Model the fold of this input.
Amino acid sequence: MFTEEFLVRVALSFLVGGLWIGGMTRIAEKFGSKLGGLLVSLPSTGVVALLFIALTQNQEAMVSATTVMPSAIAAGTIFLVMFAVLYRFGWVFAYFGAIAVWFALNLPLVILRIENIAVSLLLALLIYCVSVTYFQKHPHRKLGPVKISKTALVLRIVFAGTVIALAVLLAKLAGPAWGGLFSSYPAAFSATVILFARKHGIEFTSSVSRTMVHGNMSIVVFAVFVFLLVPHVGVALGIFFAYLVCLVFATFSYRFVNRM
Done:
């Protein structure tokens, strides 16, 4: 089932995805809660995972994977909410509790094979309403540049790369919807909130999370435009133009957040 070429591409997805997310989250830490929160929310895991799903299978599989992504991506903001709520019990309990909620929100779509992007978008809208309302009470806080250890950076890269490689594998073994689900796993959010909460406390982490919610919406925009464009212009151009639209949306989001 697994050819040598497929395994090489899975390995590349691990390396490329891990380095991308490790780099983006490190850059984000240097810009405080507003710009940093938006940077870490830009498409990363999803871009690399979708690209490698197309490389290891085909264009149709990649497009099919996007149908579940809007709700799965939006559920990442509920992950942020639950992490903040549960942090009083320790970061380990908060993290796994938040991930459990993330899975609970998304598994029904995958198990029931509801591969309808309109349904996924509706669920995403409802999720965002909850998340925005929760984080509205957390004001933005300033923080100078943060220096992270080499060990923390390597662990972040390995974790993110593993998630992306798993998405590519599951898309091959269990179908595109499972690949789309794991493409939307909040890998960058995970690394960021754990680091920030342990170093700077949950209040600062919540202020960053408030911005992440708005930035996260740009990833949904990316997934929708991949779904719309790729069948007509191909994988490379579809991802390129979808990312451009996403960047424009993220720019307006950043201006909006700056006025908050």
Remarks:
- The two ends are 52 Å apart (CA to CA).
- The mean pLDDT is 78.
- The CA atoms of residues 229 and 238 lie 5 Å apart.
- Residues 202-233 form the longest helix (32 residues).
